[in-house]
Amino acid sequence: MPTGIYTRTEQHREINSKAHRGQRPTEEHKRKISGFMKGNLYSLGRIHSEETKVKMCESHKGEKAYNWKGDDVGYCALHAWVRNELGQPDTCEECGRTGLIGRQINWANKSGEYKRDLKDWRRLCISCHRNFDLKRKEP
Ligand SMILES: [Zn+2]
């Protein structure tokens, strides 16, 4: 067995290089990994990162249709941020209805510019939110 400082020669590099060639996963292999990951329940019940929240938000496309801005990930991230900062009160600031949960109530953006500014957001029930957005869009 050789001991001490072991210098790799060009020949060694060539051998090592060859040994690792052809080890990239094939397209089929990638698909198998992907299919496997879809059934992965590992992340359930875990605390979600901002990135995950955006992904979850993305997956709810269409359900927020009246106020949905399409593929704008920034919109999702911003809403996740507001929820994180201000929580999810159950009272509409406009009509005063209480006990609203889930999609019955949302954070509405006052300026329409989706500022990263907590003063630019108010808690509105779905109907007030819709009215508010319609009014804002009028010229
Ligand atoms: Zn309301």
What are the salient characteristics of this protein?
139 residues, mainly alpha, 2 strands, two-stranded antiparallel sheet, 5 helices, 42% helix
State which percent range the strand residues make up: 5-15%
Bound ligand species: zinc ion
What is the global morphology?
Answer: elongated
Count of β-strands: 2
User: What is the count of helical runs?
Assistant: 5
Task: Please state the structural category.
Answer: mainly alpha
Order of helices and strands: HHHHEEH
Main β-sheet, in a few words? 2 strands, antiparallel
Mean of residue pLDDT values:
75
- What is the rounded distance between the termini? 84 Å
Q: Whole-number radius of gyration?
A: 26 Å
Strand order of the largest sheet: 1-2
Helicity, in percent? 40-55%
Low-pLDDT ranges: 62-66
Question: How does the SSE layout of this entry go?
Answer:
Layout: H1 10-20, H2 27-38, H3 50-59, H4 73-86, E1 105-109, E2 121-125, H5 126-137
Antiparallel strand pairs: 1-2
Short description:
This protein has 139 residues and is mainly α. Helix content is 42%, strand content 7%. The protein contains 5 helices and 2 strands.
Provide a descriptive summary of the structure in words:
With 139 residues, the chain is mainly α. It has a domain at 47-137. It is built from 5 helices and 2 strands, in the order ααααββα. The chain has a two-stranded antiparallel sheet with strand order 1-2. Helix 3 (50-59) crosses helix 4. The longest helix has 14 residues, at 73-86. It is elongated. It starts with 9 loop residues before the first helix and ends with a helix. Residues 62-66 have low confidence and may be disordered. The structure holds zinc ion. Zinc ion binds next to strand 2 and helix 5.
